[in-house]
Model the fold of this input.
Amino acid sequence: MDAKFSEQLGALFPQGYWKKWEDRFQHDFWNCHFARTDDYDRDFIYRELSNKRILEVGGYPGLLMGVYKLRGCEVVAVDAPQYRPEYYLEWCKSQGIISLEHDIHKGRLVLPGRFDIAVMSDVLLHNSGFPSEFMRGLIEDCDEVYLLNYKDGAQGKIERGQICNLEVGFPLPSPENVIEEMKSLGAKISYQGESAGRTLLVFKKENQDEVSDSDSALRKVGELDEAISESGPVVADGA
Done:
């Protein structure tokens, strides 16, 4: 991350807040999510998440949402009750970010409108079981769902004590299992890549492309009807 962007991002946060998280953002979030390498175009995320309406599931502590804001995105955050400290909620409010409280294992969340992209970064690591009904809602209400996870399920990191709030032996989702679960909910995978121990999986609704084509055709028919209505009936030559 270049110094100018770091300065712009840091300016979005209170000084003490940014100082607390800057190193982690640089070496974990940025390097694993946005930097470009030979084996996986991590810049894919940075490039795609611009001027979009984004739902960040697991938004705390807000570092990635800061990037989205700098990229001209409208952002809504979803966090479990234990990940909504007051200083985080105050920061969300200062940035115009709507913060929703929801446990993803409590079923589907009614969202404030439709979203271009839903992002879940390492969220599945901190949950027991696959949140099927919640994910079904994301597939229905978002054009794309981005799931970032440790490609080995983070089992090694747990055993080494690097993820201290998870128990050794916790059943973690592999990319293959996640893909299988998402397909069972009516999603298809449209992008897959790996880098720095992480996997990015991008999903769309199974028939989304067909629906989009249909909507486009209907819009064209509607525009034609409107044009005819405004100009009057078309009369053929010689009539």
The CA atoms of residues 115 and 223 lie 25 Å apart. The two ends are 69 Å apart (CA to CA). Residues 3-206 form a domain with the Rossmann fold fold (CATH 3.40.50.150). Residues 36-42, 154-170, 211-239 have pLDDT under 50 and may be disordered.
